[in-house]
Write a structure and sequence with these properties.
The chain is α+β, with helices and mostly antiparallel strands and 211 residues long. It is 26% helix and 31% strand.
Length: 211
């Protein structure tokens, strides 16, 4: 009888240990998944904040002969269009990178979304450049610009020529694709403060007029 009770006790203990082991294993896997999710979320938040800082600091170019403040360009060694931005970098620990600067958003051969910044007065030789990796494992990306045309119509455009002296777009959308995905896995929108607002007010004879 005592032997039977011992066997039953050992069986119960074995079952209890098996349940506890399974619980702790599942808990460890869940913690690992949560850790990866938190890291991915933090990475995306950093990307959004970095681009938000740059795109909302776009400033008009001081010389009409210079390229536009914001334009797309295709470089020979890259498959994707790059976005070039003339912006106010504010105060930087390195005085060379303070104030008006140029930035380029692009994808490098390692499929990383990157940001390059160089001082405006070194635009030609680009001897002093900062490179940042914003996001990894990116297949392609696309910018869309909400612009107002001369006929007052508004549309999304995927390209902006460097010679175009148009108003800075009021909204920029960014779509990002991973390898193997047909749909973008990340989408961002950035409102630019220097766009000219369209004001509609009533005129004589009930006709509405835009300014």
């Amino acid at each position: 009888m005592i032997l039977f009770e011992i066997i039953v006790g050992l069986a119960l203990l074995s079952g209890l240990l098996s349940i506890l082991f399974s619980f702790f294993t599942s808990s460890a896997k869940m913690q690992e998944k949560l850790g990866r999710a938190e890291a991915a979320l933090a990475e995306r938040q950093r990307l959004n904040q970095r681009l938000q800082t740059i795109l909302t600091s776009v400033i008009p170019t001081p010389d009409p002969s210079l390229p536009a403040s914001l334009y797309t360009q295709k470089f020979p060694e890259e498959e994707n269009l790059s976005l070039v931005i003339y912006f106010d970098h504010g105060i930087d620990p390195d005085p060379a990178f303070s104030g008006p600067s140029l930035a380029r958003i692009y994808i490098n051969p390692q499929h990383e979304l990157c940001l390059a910044i160089w001082p405006k007065d070194r635009e030609k030789d680009k001897t002093l450049v900062r490179h940042e990796v914003l996001l990894q494992n990116i297949k392609t990306f696309a910018f869309q610009f909400l612009t107002q045309k001369t006929d007052q119509s508004i549309s999304w455009e995927s390209k902006r020529p460097a010679k175009a002296k148009e108003d800075i777009p009021s909204l920029i959308r960014l779509d990002l694709w991973e390898e193997g995905n047909q749909k973008p896995f990340l989408q961002f929108a950035f409102a630019l403060p220097f766009s000219k607002p369209s004001i509609v007010y009533p005129a004589h004879e009930g006709v509405k007029k835009k300014t």
